[in-house]
Amino acid sequence: MQVLPNTCTCTNRPDLFCSITATSEQSLSKMSKEDNIDNMLDPLFIQESGEVYRNPTQVQMSQIVLPCHANHCGELSVGQLLKWMDSTACLSAERHSGVSCVTASVDDINFEHTIEVGKVVNITAKVNRAFTSSMEVGILVMCEDLYTSHQWKVCRAFATFVARRTEAGKVQLKQVIPHTQMEQMEYSLAAERRRMRLIHAEIITDLLSCKCQTQEYKDAVPAERTRVESVELVLPPHANHQVSTFGGQIMAWMENVATIAASRLCNAHPTLRTIDMFHFRGPSHIGDRLVLKAIVNNSFKHSMEVGVCAEAYKGGEPLRHINSAFMTFEVLDGERKACTLPRIRPEPIDGKRRYKEAIARKKIRLDRKYIVSCKHTEVPVSVPWDPSNQMYLSYNNVSALKLMDTRNNWVLTSEKNKVRLYTLEENHMLFFKVVMCVSVPAEQTFHLLSDLRRRKEWDRHYESCEVINQADEDDTLYRITAPSVRKGGKGQDFILLASRRKPCGPRDPYLIALRSVTLPTHPPTEECTRGEVLCAGFTIWEESPSDTKITYYNQATPGVIPYISTDIAGLSSSFYSSFAACSQFLENNLNSMAPSVETELL
Fold this sequence. Notes:
disordered C terminus; EC 3.1.2.2; lipid metabolism
């Protein structure tokens, strides 16, 4: 698709977000990858009314991998796959917007499998959410064996497209209306993914502020040896229906020179594993000369990062920056295991800067892999917190709560005076939620409940609460103590990350998400048993200017179950007294705005 500068702006605050996250997937277990894949592959959905529903923005492309699409190994070229993905996603965006669209950015892509010649590639794309003039398109790539009918996931990606201006002016996109549980989940999480995109550069800057020494290795390969420069003339076959260079074509050319650079380091044929999030900075057109430059920025034990830049010019014009990307390669042996790679010796000045930036990006990839990705079985309930992974823990925290909120098979366990307790047991995991309505404006409710220091005023399970760290205006770390449920027993303490979000649009609630983290400054003590919270929090919906619906969620962990077991079993209604006290607390503070934690710390 045609590419434009990073112009996907939105007048609303990008305060909510997306994607199936680490412990979120663990939390909601079998709202699993298989379920997600089935929902994206099957274009038809039978609603409860019996009507057949098909997502109007969904586009599917199927291609047989021919030798002309393959590399030297007889596997589908990643560049060719990127072109197919970009075309499918653009068609979906244009189906929703009704006008021509351009690729603005693509999130991280992790390629889980290669695709052999003779296999079928099935690509599904649909618009998850539309903002003012930009929209997020989800892309799923599956590989199919025609002889066995077996299918498996190759990668999943999220691309941002911008609707082009028309003669009437800037396009105001119509909103996406989610109809299924899966669509509601993606709609909700899309805003949070957008939030991550907007602050991605800040994270790199923060990581680079930490001192990082360039290590000297014996027999290191000079980075200069891996440098590649190539030029491409943009011809009509490389252009889209808007007479501009395909974004996918540019990505394919970039992948080509990056592969050559990686090969020069290892003297072997590398396999592309990931492409980091990138933004298109400017458009390219037929007749442009596209200059592509690549170099290995850094090599690690089993992987290497290649930086690649695309610039365009025409005639005597100066070079225009089109795009920069960072790609991670591995070299696989005969058993498909990663080989040990030679180390790199960076060039002076710019080479050392790129070397250090590659280390920072590797840290981000690891954070995403073990916090945001589906590798959640490899992390404990409480993930270590530090400023460098704050954004990803916050993302995980909010997305886990959003995923729980999309569940629709809750069972009503108890009700008293319009306070309702629901439970959900799934895959040996117990979830519960409490729902009530209050005559307090939603924003006021949000501010009062998001300050956990005041929760002890209505929740008898909160004995004390102190602020450990105010990370930013949306994320706060607390230490909370709770009394023992047994006489003479030790109380519990929790180290919680509280992440709050205001609505990004009218279909979004206020959110207060809670999860446990670990801090080296606050280890467990002998006085208290360290408890853990995997996923908990509030969703706050505005029913009217003066009425609010509050839902409290919690995924039961060993540290939480003792406090709610009698309510779940129907032997007590103490939950009612707690939330009745919450309602009274909110109404008593109707005209007072809770001071921010930042204000009090000052």
